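Below sits my pick:
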Amino acid sequence: MDHSTMNYRLLAGLMLALAAAPSLASDYPLTVRSCERDVTLNKAPQRVVVHDVNMTGMLLHLGVRERLAGYTGFTATKHRDPWISEALQGVPQLASRYPSVETLLAVDADLFFAGWNYGMRIGGPLTPTSLAAFGIPVYELSESCSWVMKQPRASLDDVYRDLTNLGRIFSVEDRAQALVGQMRARIDAVGNTVRQAPEAPRVFLYDSGEDRPTTSGRLGMPQALIDAAGGHNIMDDVAASWTQVNWESVVERDPEVIAIVDYGPLSWQQKRDFLLRHPALQTVRAVREQRFVVLTYLEVTPSVENAIAIEKLAAGLHPRLFAQESH
């Protein structure tokens, strides 16, 4: 069974189990913490606009599809996740990139679930402050808070916090607890294995870009994924989330494994072939040994699928340990 079939079955099984579970009711008015703000809701949202694939996936896993007034931020080549497209049939895409205030007002939105550089920009037209004037509350993706407040390092706790808060917001706390429990169990199982590794292999995450590569520093979710998989992010000294670096820095740090993000107009195979042909990378160990791990956009951004990403990464970083487990 390949990874895609296995992952689809795991996701389908989890969603069926969650659908069968009864929901605990939240008490309203309800206040949750979002970055540096408190957000208060008087009732469970019924007309939500959500930005980007990963946050949409969270809401689908939580079983609140019927509460979606629409979604934004899905370009034609952003994701390779058929189950999300199938689940969203009948739900309108309101904007292929960032929405406007008018976009949300047109559908009478009662919550905007987005993040900084995930639907909102500092100083842009769409922010929690600008939407407050129209009575539309905003819940911010926790990992993205590094753009507006000091964060030490991306953490899986960011994802757990979001799922828990969303469970309270939508009055589906039991579903949220189940999702967090499933993620923790899978990630703990990986941790028990990678603890046996003698060292943490050096990892470079390659998102895109030819003149200069886009990658993730210590404030982006890939940092937490690489940590949990028993690796060392070679860009963990960069105090940034998604950012551009120089190829010279990659060569100097000599990654042993390169994780390729499979999204965008180029296939992961085209990205891999570019890396293999790049003259400056011929001395890099990961290129010489052709050690690549392929992760989807959904898997590398904050999401329930982060558990899958950690499993894939760990198997690619520590093949001998995981080969022993399979026998």
Q: What stands out?
A: Residues 33 and 319 are 40 Å apart (CA to CA). The chain has two domains: 16-179, 199-325.
